[in-house]
Amino acid sequence: MLDYLRVRGLALLDDVALDFEPGMNVLTGETGAGKSIIVDALTLLRGVRGRAELIREGDEAARVEAQFAVRGPNNQPLHPALGERLDELGLDSEDGTLVLERRIRRSGRGRAAIQSNLSTLAVLAEIGGELLEICSQHEHHSLTHVSHHLDLLDAYAELDGPEGPLADYAEHYRRWRELSERISAIRELETERLQRADYVRFQIEELERVSPEPGEHEQLRSRLAVVCRAHELAGFATEAQAQLYDDDHAMASRLAILLERARRLPEGLAILDQLAEQLEAAQIACEEAAAAAARLSDEIEVEPGELERAQERLHELDRLRRKHGCEVDELIERAQAMREELDALDSTEGELEQLEQLEAELWAEACQRADALHEARVAAASGLARAVEAELAALHIPTAQLTVSLCPLDDQDESDPRSGLGPRGRDRAELRFSANAGEPLAPLNKVASGGELSRVLLAVKSVLSTQQRVATYVFDEVDAGVGGAVAEAIGLRLRKAASKHQVLCITHLPQIAAYAEAHFRVRKQVVDGRTVTRVERLDDDERVEELARMLGGKQVTHSAREHARALIEQARKPARASKAKSAKAKPKPAKSKAKPKAKTKSKAKPKPKPARRQTGSRRA
């Protein structure tokens, strides 16, 4: 139950604090006074995206704070599932209250908190959704969308919920869908897989043929340098030996010829003798140099073809290094990675068979749950229709007829037997309606007027409220398009709902406002040149004046006041009778319906913030 609400900096609400009562709370006021802004504030506590244009001009942020009672007089949780969820989140509600906060900023960075602990928007939406059900003035248009009708049936059949049958089916359907898409992707890539496997296999064979070894590249380069040097030295030694001594025209041979000729020349010339001696010395030097070259050649050990083999090996390694874009030592790891990839590619065929088998099992499980959903919906459809018809009769459509038709999904493909399931099962629901006796049933969105849609929505909400755990219902001008006796009937249905739930109702109709157990008036006024919205709790006399204004307009007459008193008195009669009947039928104090004000006075309401009551008086 919503105990307390404070709104600051939201549109015309500069700083408004409200204390609500159990039962039926009504907010009235002129059009444009700011009533729906209070609903906007509550939607923020349900995780709705905060828009910067909601922030009051001149303020940088808007703040909404609400305190809910989540435990009863005996400290019993009013929402067992919510209590378990709060325990999971580590949020303490032992004092029986729960405080939700929301702040939106112009900069876009907002803040959400539960029990003064920072919260994600998703968690706030989850908790707020458990506490508040908001029915806006435009929600009856949702009835014109057939896609929404299945939601209503599932709620009535109690199939929804985080751990309900629908969630269980949705999880199995999601798993089947994801696996089916994975299998389709594998099949589409089969040709690419085969091509890739052939390519990887070729690369592995090439690497295994070359078979590089760790450190081989550097060792090979070092050895190649040595072999090249040895070949260079050996070539020089061979060439030197040949030119000095071995060739036919070697230097030693030519010097021997010159020396022989010099010796045959006439003697007696000292210079000739000197030349002969020098030629002989040169011949000896050539022979010694040739011998040294021969020794050098003998000392150099190079295997035949080693240079060519080393160059070819180095060329092969460099080619693979460039091809794979890595160092030679990394080629070994690359080969291992390719072997693993090839194993994975080769095993895909077997994996595909396993996945297809698993997919068939998941499909069967999803179908089984879809069948169970369908049977539950079929069983609940007539019950929902009869319950809504009964509510519509009380809302002055006594001849209303309603059916909930179930049919297969629209987008089924006859060539694909597995197209018969969707995220919510195999069903599509449609409400068919007739307001007049003897008239055939037709789709609700085609035959219902605006006033009839409003009453159908209220009837559905009334039926669902008997099954839902939400403690507080907010109705924002759901009386659109009605008046007179119908409005009185709507007020009576809201009062009935308020016997089990807290109701916050925004209305322009005095026939509905007369049923209020707590009546608030919303009005605009100018303060320091700025327009602000003020909300005040009305006493009995002020209620009469407000209803008289709603009945007679700006000029409140005596007859309007009398009419207002009559409406209030008439509204109190069924409430008194209901309370008397309840007291007679349920004599135990723990189960009796206590008067809202007495209940409020009997308990001390915990305050999340000590200073908040400065603006939280009956008149805000």
TrEMBL record:
GO MF annotation list: ATP binding
Keyword rRNA-binding recorded: no
This protein's record includes keyword DNA damage: yes
SUPFAM superfamilies for the chain: P-loop containing nucleoside triphosphate hydrolases
Residues in RecF/RecN/SMC N-terminal domain copies: 14-525
Biased composition (Basic residues): 573-620
UniProt-listed GO biological process terms: DNA recombination; DNA repair; SOS response
Region ranges (Disordered): 569-620
Coiled-coil residue spans: 272-358
Xref: InterPro entries: DNA_recomb/repair_RecN, P-loop_NTPase, RecF/RecN/SMC_N
Function: May be involved in recombinational repair of damaged DNA.
Protein family according to the UniProt entry: Belongs to the RecN family.
Protein name as catalogued: DNA repair protein RecN
Gene designation per UniProt: recN
